[in-house]
Design goal:
With 127 residues, the chain is mainly β. 3% of the residues lie in helices and 39% in strands. The protein has a 4-stranded antiparallel sheet, with no helix packed on it. A 3-stranded antiparallel sheet has the order 2-1-5, with no helix packed on it. The relative contact order is 0.21. The mean pLDDT is 94. It binds fe (ii) ion. The site of fe (ii) ion has 6 residues, from loops.
Amino acid sequence: MKEIKRIYRCNICGNIVEVLHSGSGTLVCCNNEMQLLEEKTEGIGPQKHIPVIEQTENGIKVKIGEVPHPMEEDHCIEWVELITDNGVYRKVFKPGDTPDAEFKINIEDINQISAREYCSIHGLWTS
Ligand SMILES: [Fe+2]
């Protein structure tokens, strides 16, 4: 059973998928089983990778780490997700962007909240 919201990567072509509905099959790409990406909280440069959640006037802001992360062609934060019990909110970045995302949501409706981000070199990180 593939759990919803899990992220899988093909280590051959680089495809990344997120499970929206769980099924019993194996996720395959390029004739190989896709790798489940573990959500990390420690490892190389956690201060550059762990997402930080802040409440704003309009909702919730997700910033990446206490130390700026490179946003270069071959090493960057590709996206962040804010995960709540009401839904998943995502912002995708490109090299040169500032990897901050503000999501205009009503926080009074939310009981659970977390964030995660994907670095093109260092993988998936969670708050
Ligand atoms: Fe990184």
